[in-house]
Design brief:
The complex is a heterodimer of chains A (268) and B (344). With 268 residues, chain A is an all-alpha fold. Chain A has helices spanning 17-37, 40-64, 68-101, 103-108, 116-143, 151-178, 182-198, 211-219, 221-235, 239-267. Chain A has one domain. Chain A is built from ten helices and no strands. The longest helix of chain A is centred in the first third of the chain and has 34 residues, at 68-101. Chain A is globular. Residues 1-12 of chain A have low confidence and may be disordered. With 344 residues, chain B is an alpha/beta fold. Chain B folds into two domains: 3-223, Rossmann fold; 229-294, Alpha-Beta Plaits (2-Layer Sandwich), CATH 3.30.70. Chain B contains eleven helices and 14 strands. In chain B, the strands form three sheets. A six-stranded mixed beta sheet of chain B has the order 6-7-8-3-9-10, with helices on both faces. A four-stranded antiparallel beta sheet of chain B has the order 2-1-4-5, covered by helices on one side. A four-stranded antiparallel beta sheet of chain B has the order 12-13-11-14, covered by helices on one side. The longest helix of chain B has 16 residues, at 168-183. The chains are: A mainly alpha (268), B alpha/beta (344). The interface between A and B is large, with 35 and 45 residues. Chain B: This is Daunorubicin resistance protein DrrA family ABC transporter ATP-binding protein. Chain B: Keywords: Antibiotic resistance, ATP-binding, Cell membrane, Membrane, Nucleotide-binding, Translocase, Transport. Chain B: GO terms for molecular function: ATP binding. Chain B: It is found in: Cell membrane.
Chain lengths: 268, 344
């Protein structure tokens, strides 16, 4: 399909969905193969949550809960949520890099499916996301975290976190398209995700906070998601937080996916 | 197919800014066409429209016989694009960058690998094939970028400021590569701010400024349009400069371009030089230096765009052609042959 010998105009042809999918996988390969040259990137993804786990478990753990291991049981699912949200920023960061460096233009000048560059990046980032969830869980278990449910619970936790981060990735895409340089994506991440994840029930029980803050913490989707993960990993799944988390994900995707796609179209 | 690229009345605005104000272009198959203009003239916008990256607000264009709007997918199958900034993925190796493009173009793994190896060898990058592109020098990166745009053997190649930021050696090297490409029958549309580059590579040049083509022709034709030659006189005693100035003005009818020590005028007619010498001799002015030289494309460019000629010291055409302001009328008509517009 890359060669056209007849110069006569042909009717406009589109890329078939199957070929588009192949483009997407090739572009996902492109985002993942660089890990081969820079294996440290796999650790970079989890260095910050690792610090958090260690600091909170051993510095604050004893003060907040009865013991560091009790606290780990409470906090680890929440840290996984925080980590997943930070990891979604990779998508916007990489997209902005492609836009500013001209890689995106190169890709768009090729006869490939229009949606493939974005889809390829999101698929690659989901793979990275899964890796970083697994890494965090493994570190937690080394430190003494014990899964109270079973393989299905763990699978459910992975699935829920991945679905939610796929939805949240659209916020990242939007930011990645709107800001002028990749570093600003990270600044945005810090400015929004830090307060968002700390004003939740991830690190301390809601009851310890002032009333006005409790009201927010209870509706914060980070709290809901953390609750859902605690159920799936520790105390047995509860449908309430799981369904609410999925609804949040759906809502975020419905609002931000169209905004992000529109922004991409406007920028290029 | 006689025209590889044809554009009519391309208009593109970005908010208040009009990047393209009605651009017409015709590029014959197998030719190198230079789009010459300063920063912000609209060169890159024109390339982006022709490469289907940007939709024009008005006008039509075909590339390789396909409409850039209605047949964008087909256009993308016949073009190669090398952007203003090297658009390779810096985290990938040279091989991986080319593999990526090959695979996206539908080549099998083996074919893509073979093509990558071949191009890396052609562009003297074999030794760096397995290194991340971010470790490449500027010249190497630009060569890789060019190689990437050639993976699919395009019929039409867009080179958007291919040598901006390169050292002279890398620039010469890249020029050599472009010349070889043209030998193989590829049509090239090249944008550049460097007159020398257009002079060296392009069969035909369009001078673009403020989103309009203000002159078009071969570099020889463009040079001829501004009268071809300039006469510079430096008196031995700078105090004589006033006399030199009035003599030059009387002989050529043009206010000379003055520096602290010398005066320069366009010397259109054949008898300007002997007349000036005789008159200066009569006025007993001792001449330290006197030079008659062909107009450089730089001067052509400056006189056409009028950027340096705001104070009226710019060269006149000497051919009796119109003396309207550079961005004046007729610019959008696409009839490049009569557009030797020079500021008065």
């Amino acid at each position: 399909m890359t060669t056209i010998s007849a110069p006569a105009p042909l009717p406009t042809r589109r890329v078939s969905p199957l070929v588009g999918l192949r483009h997407t996988m090739t572009l996902a390969w492109r985002s993942l193969v660089q890990i081969k040259h820079n294996p440290m990137e796999l650790l970079d993804l989890s260095i910050q949550p690792l610090m958090f786990v260690l600091l909170f478990t051993y510095v604050f753990g004893g003060a907040i809960a009865d013991s560091p291991s009790d606290y780990l049981r409470f906090m680890l699912p929440g840290i996984m949520v925080q980590n997943a949200l930070f990891a979604t920023m990779t998508t916007g960061f990489g997209l902005n890099m492609d836009l500013t460096k001209g890689v995106f233009d190169r890709l768009r000048s090729l006869p490939i499916a229009r949606w493939a560059p974005l889809a390829g990046r999101i698929i690659a980032d989901t793979v990275k996301q899964a890796w970083s969830i697994a890494l965090l869980l493994a570190i937690g278990m080394v430190l003494g975290f014990r899964i109270g449910t079973g393989p299905l619970g763990v699978l459910g936790a992975f699935a829920l976190l991945l679905v939610f981060s796929l939805a949240a990735a659209w916020i990242s895409v939007l930011v990645g398209v709107l800001v002028s340089e990749p570093d600003k994506v990270q600044i945005f991440g810090f400015m929004v995700i830090f307060p968002l994840t700390f004003t939740s029930n991830v690190f301390v029980p809601t009851e310890s906070m002032p009333g006005w803050l409790q009201a927010w913490v209870k509706v914060n989707p980070v709290s809901t998601l953390a609750d859902a993960l605690r159920g799936l990993l520790v105390s047995g799944p509860e449908s309430g937080p799981i369904v609410t988390s999925l609804l949040w994900g759906l809502g975020i995707a419905l609002v931000f996916a169209p905004l992000a796609v529109r922004a991409v179209r406007r920028r290029v | 197919m006689s025209h590889a690229i044809r554009a009519e009345g391309l208009v593109r605005r970005f908010g208040e800014t009009t990047a393209l104000a009605g651009v017409d272009l015709e590029v014959g198959a197998g030719r190198v066409f230079g789009l010459l203009g300063p920063n912000g003239a609209g060169k890159t916008t024109a390339v982006r429209v022709l490469a289907t990256l940007l939709r024009p607000d008005a006008g039509t264009a075909t590339v390789g016989g396909y409409d850039v709007l209605r047949q964008a997918h087909q256009v993308r199958q016949v073009i190669g694009l090398t952007g203003q900034y090297a658009s390779v993925d810096e985290t990938l190796t040279g091989t991986e960058n080319l593999l990526l493009i090959g695979r996206l173009l539908g080549m099998s793994r083996g074919d893509a690998r073979a093509r990558a190896r071949q191009l890396l060898a052609e562009f003297h990058l074999s030794d760096a094939a397995d290194r991340a592109a971010k470790t490449y020098s500027g010249g190497m990166r630009r060569r890789l970028d060019l190689a990437a745009s050639l993976v699919g053997r395009p019929r039409v190649l867009f080179l958007d400021e291919p040598t901006t930021g390169l050292d002279p050696r890398s620039r010469t090297e890249l020029w050599g590569i472009v010349r070889e490409l043209v030998g193989s029958g590829v049509t090239v549309l090249l944008t550049t701010q460097y007159l020398e580059e257009a002079d060296q590579l392009a069969d035909e040049i369009a001078v673009i400024d403020h989103g309009r083509v203000i002159a078009q022709g071969t570099s020889e034709e463009l040079k001829a349009k501004v009268g071809g030659q300039a006469l510079m006189v430096r008196p031995a005693d700078p105090a004589d400069l006033a006399v030199v100035r009035s003599v030059l003005r009387e002989v050529t009818g043009v206010e000379p371009d003055l520096t602290q020590y010398a005066a320069t005028v366009p010397a259109g007619g054949g008898d300007v030089l002997p007349t000036v010498v005789r008159r200066l001799d009569d006025a007993e002015v001792t001449i330290a230096e006197l030079a008659l030289r062909g107009a450089s494309l730089d001067e052509v460019f400056l006189s056409l765009t009028g950027h340096r000629a705001d104070d009226g010291t710019g060269s006149d055409t000497g051919t009796g052609a119109g003396t309207e302001k550079g961005t004046g009328s007729g610019a959008g008509t696409g009839d490049g042959t009569e557009l030797a517009e020079v500021s008065a």
